[in-house]
């Protein structure tokens, strides 16, 4: 790790690689438990690799709508007021999704193995594939700060899932209009 924690976090997020992505996207109407395995090389012990396994709970997305009635336009011209009225009339197109997650240390384990990172990651991937878990991910990343890789996994899954979540919400209640994604 460097003397700059901001750089370390950025570096860890960018170095995270998905060896195996979850087969399923994040659930729209319930929480999703993502089971992760993170393989990382120990910087101070050549030939040693740490495997961390745990669970990330991703909360279902919430629809966030701006409160346009609370906006006042004091000192603005007629055009601004008309535009605000337009936005109020098209409120559904301003909806966004808000995702949350909860890192839990239950079912958390770690072990030190001898081998190369890529070889150990393949072995872990093969073992995970045998379990046929649609919400399992195998990652490689930095050993410290390792948990940044888990948050980056969550971020990528949010991006990957958003379009499908919007389609689900549209189909079950009209919370989004066509073209809102």
Rg result: 21 Å
Number of helices: 4
Compute the average pLDDT: 89
> Distance between termini?
38 Å
**What's the helical proportion of residues?**
25-40%
By secondary-structure content and strand pairing, the structural class works out as alpha+beta
The helix-strand sequence is: HEEEEHEEHEH
Q: What order do the strands of the largest sheet run in, or round the barrel if closed? A: 1-7-2-3-6
Strand fraction: 25-35%
Low-confidence stretches: none
Outline of the structure:
This protein is 35% helix and 28% strand. The chain is an alpha+beta fold and 181 residues long.
Task: Explain what this protein looks like in three dimensions.
It is a single chain. By secondary structure, this protein is of the alpha+beta class. The protein contains 4 helices and 7 strands. Helix 1 crosses helix 4. The longest helix is centred in the C-terminal third of the chain and has 25 residues, at 147-171. 22% of the residues are buried. The mean pLDDT is 89.
Structural topology:
Blueprint: H1 5-15, E1 17-20, E2 32-41, E3 48-58, E4 62-64, H2 78-89, E5 96-98, E6 101-114, H3 117-131, E7 136-140, H4 147-171
Parallel strand pairs: 2-7
Antiparallel strand pairs: 1-7, 2-3, 3-6, 4-5
Give short descriptive properties of this protein.
single chain; 4 helices; two-stranded antiparallel ribbon; elongated; 181 residues; alpha+beta
